[in-house]
Amino acid sequence: MPCGAGGRVVRALMSLSLSFAAEELLCACDVPHCSQPNCTGKVCFVSKRKEEGTITQHRGCFSQNILEHCQTPVTEQYGMRCCKSRMCNAELEIFLQGEDALGKTPSLPNLLLMIFVPLLALLVLVALTALFCWKVAQHRHKHSDFGDTDLMLKASMVGDSTLEGHDPMATLFAQDLLNDDCTTGSGSGLPFLVQRTVARQITLMECVGKGRYGEVWRGVWHGESVALKFFSSRDEQSWFRETEIYNTVLLRHDNILGFIASDMTSRNSSTQLWLITHYHENGSLYDYLQRTALDVETCLGLASSIICGLVHLHVEIFGTQGKPAIAHRDLKSRNILVKSNRQCCIADLGLAVMHSQGSDYLDIGNNPRVGTKRYMAPEVLSEQIRTDCFESYKKTDIWAYGLVLWEITRRTVVNGIVEEYRPPFFDAVPSDPSFEDMKKVVCVDQQTPVIPNRLFSDSVLSALAKIMKECWYQSPSARLTALRIKKTLKKLNNSVEKPKAEQ
Ligand code: ADP
Ligand code: MG
């Protein structure tokens, strides 16, 4: 046999075996004789057998194409399916008679998933519903006291009957909250949410005053009178400033108006700004002096209490219960209230500036409003004031304090004589003086109010007259400090009280 012919036969046999081998299929295999998870054969199969209620399933390959096997009809006990592509039996499913895709027995992890996923979803749903119901209940409770959720207050004139039948605990809390006698406390402000709640539980009673930029009303909260100041939108910076100061600085002091709450709401698409403070039925010192002539003791009491308030503002207190130094910048008899014990308290911090020595931080605020022209110090009118220096602002307060002292002493009876109430510079400027009017009198002519002669016939009043003059120096640095005035008045008080005790 020629070598070439024999070689052709070998090649033919080889290609036959190769093509045979190429027709071998890779199948998934889990029958016991498979040492690997796969096998090679002519067809892949999956078989299922049910014996005594137990189902066993196998995958593997047939080395010969035994079609009869593959064509075995599926019964309740046995079934087989075949396929002819690489690993085609890996995912091949077979269902016995009476068994369908839905009825197939799930694996344990699947079973757990089938139980726990819907259970978890149910639990989440229940929890969300409970949370929602609780929120709704809370919301209703919060607004139930004033019925209409759109209205901030029951802004109607109502009789005293609305004050009756309140929860005694709430009334006690109210009394505690509104207690005038507390000089110290944990900050001036209540927590914001409480402030809001208080604001919305107040019943408005009557308008007690109109200021430059807003109105003041008497309101009732849990049987106690409170004052509500409404700020016009023109003066929103004053509200922001006052709210900021009361909420950040510990300002509880007998001679500073007691703060209760601050609230901002939107009504008919406009913003309403409120400040709620203690109510003082005597009104402002300005109001009080119109109708009341004073004896020397009361005069001294008013003057001393105002300077106590001013010292508390001006002084920086260090430590955890501390406060920055504050200058008022709009001190006047209208911004001082007279309490029922005839002590005064200083109100209206809308223009105040703060200073902290430690951090050398001067907070001038952001208010376009200026002080009241009539009470402006010469350096403010001449615009020479050093606006970057905190001390300058304190000195303008002292100038104004001198003017308030002048208003008080005019209304004090000495030797049976007393004068009508008049505002400072009443005889030098028109009733609503302009900046220029004031500048001419205070800076150019360097006028100060005339001190009535009769004051010099009383030792206390002549001491007060001396203090006034020392508040009115043109040079700010020459003026007294609030602390110096307080000490002088304390001495005066002692000298008045001693002879009384000796009597
Ligand atoms: P202004 O300081 O420009 O006079 P306000 O709006 O501060 O204006 O006050 C207006 C008036 O309301 C005061 O002059 C005073 O009669 C009255 N008033 C202000 N606050 C109180 C208060 N807490 N208690 C009683 N009356 C007040
Ligand atoms: Mg005021």
Provide a descriptive summary of the structure in words:
The chain has 503 residues and is α+β, with helices and mostly antiparallel strands. It is 37% helix and 18% strand. It is built from 13 helices and 15 strands. The chain has helices at residues 3-22, 67-70, 108-143, 168-178, 192-199, 236-248, 285-291, 296-314, 378-381, 390-410, 435-444, 459-471, 482-502, and strands at residues 25-28, 38-41, 43-51, 54-62, 78-83, 203-210, 214-221, 224-231, 259-267, 270-278, 325-327, 336-338, 344-346, 353-356, 361-363. The strands form five sheets. A five-stranded antiparallel β-sheet has the order 6-7-8-10-9. Strands 4-3-5 form a three-stranded antiparallel β-sheet, with no helix packed on it. It is rod-shaped. The termini are far apart. The chain binds adenosine-5'-diphosphate and magnesium ion (MG). Magnesium ion binds at residues 211, 334-335, 347-348. Magnesium ion binds next to loops.
Output the strand order for the largest sheet: 6-7-8-10-9
Cα distance spanning the termini: 161 Å
Low-pLDDT residue spans: 1-21, 140-186
Q: Which small-molecule species are bound to the chains here?
A: adenosine-5'-diphosphate, magnesium ion
| CATH topology descriptor of the largest domain | Transferase(Phosphotransferase), domain 1
Biggest beta-sheet profile: 5 strands, antiparallel
So what's the oligomer here? single chain
**Rg estimate, integer Å:** 46 Å
| CATH class descriptor of the largest domain | Mainly Alpha
Please give the number of β-strands.
Answer: 15
Strand content: 15-25%
SS content category = alpha+beta
Instruction: Output mean pLDDT.
Output: 81
